[in-house]
Amino acid sequence: MFWNEEFETLPKEALESLQLKRLQQTVAKVAASVPLYRDSFSKSGITADKITSLEHLRDLPFTVKQDMRDNYPYGLFAVSLEEIVRIHASSGTTGKPTVVGYTRKDIDSWSELMARSFVAAGAHKGDVIHNAYGYGLFTGGLGAHYGAERLGASVIPMSGGNSKKQIMIMQDFGSTVLTCTPSYSLYLAEIAAEEGIDIRSLKLKVGIFGAEPWSEQMRGEIEAVLNLKAIDIYGLSEILGPGVGIECIEAQAGLHIWEDHFIPEIIDPETCQVLPPGERGELVITTITKEGIPLIRYRTRDITRIIDEPCICGRTHRRLERMSGRSDDMMIIRGVNIFPSQIESVLFNVKGIEPHYQLIINREENLDTLEVQVEVNEQTFSDEVKGLQSLANQIRREIKDLLGVTCKVRLVVPKTLARSEGKARRVIDNRQR
Ligand SMILES: [Zn+2]
């Protein structure tokens, strides 16, 4: 099933020539209207007519998050505010947020790409889409909302929070599709259980989960606990919001990135060189249809690789391997690089614990220490202390064997770690204080 069969199955050559044409238009436009690009292009002698092949993308400068902060709030907009119909911002952990503006045509393309994404995930007109992504400055809520309306589904604009009510609405309104962060879906399941409701008996058939990296093991857990197909969606507000890429329900193996709107590259985050096809590195995206805030070679900090093999679903757009994490989230513990998702993979294979964990990094006597806090389930908790001790030892050993890092493991009482209604906070790094 396709939403836009013509574009979703465009042959490679046609897709690439469309990309080239749109890239030339984008370069011409930002050179004329965005001071950051005008200055850097003129320094390096870049003009749109010199872009005669997609290979020339490599000659263009990167854009980084700091460029957006430096040009806060509207400095990177390529059109006047009169053309902007919507403004979103991503919450920076420090300081000012990153601001993005959309023209009417941008909102239209975004709705189209989200509608495509819903269909790829197995949703269709007639579905009741329970949208628990936050509505507001965050792009998740409204992005999914407009796509669901474009699709013609019945969308319930729940937003995040108020979890008991979410369960009641899902039950009473017959929600068939759930959109939220993966960690929040498990929290909803927990609340349902407390309320004595079997969440598996609801009509949910698909969950579209994104905004934070999650492991294949967590997918297994979610599918088992909620009795639905769990689909990974990718997006970031700087580029668009949700709907930059999505897994198809046919393969559930890698996220199709909509290449008629975006050009992906994979670089080595240290040297900034483009890596050979198929290698894993940092994802860089160039937008080629955006009007409000087109970005050239934006460094996403997300770690992935491009899968070039054809997909069984028939879509020709290449796939991104599921994100193993953001390079920002990578922890370096005594010289060992680890992502929270790798720890998660280990934890999800251990019996007797709950899928709720937190990683605490400290510096003690100039040495980095990692503490893994994980909740045990009710049954394990009632066991004797000896059992708990051997469980902690087992987790510590498996993390050491698989990831090469020594950590402390602290088993905690069920439901003690903080739950999030949006993005889960997995890592607390006390070294930076
Ligand atoms: Zn596919």
Structural summary, described in words:
The protein is α/β, with parallel strands linked by helices. The chain has 2 domains: 327 residues, 3-Layer(aba) Sandwich (Rossmann fold), CATH 3.40.50.12780; 102 residues, GMP Synthetase, Chain A, domain 3. Helices cover 32% and strands 25% of the residues. It contains 12 helices and 21 strands. The strands form 5 sheets. It has a 9-stranded mixed β-sheet. Strands 10-11-12-15 form a 4-stranded antiparallel β-sheet. Strand 6, helix 9 and strand 7 form a beta-alpha-beta unit. The longest helix is centred in the first third of the chain and has 22 residues. It is globular, with a radius of gyration of 22 Å. The mean pLDDT is 94. Zinc ion binds next to loops.
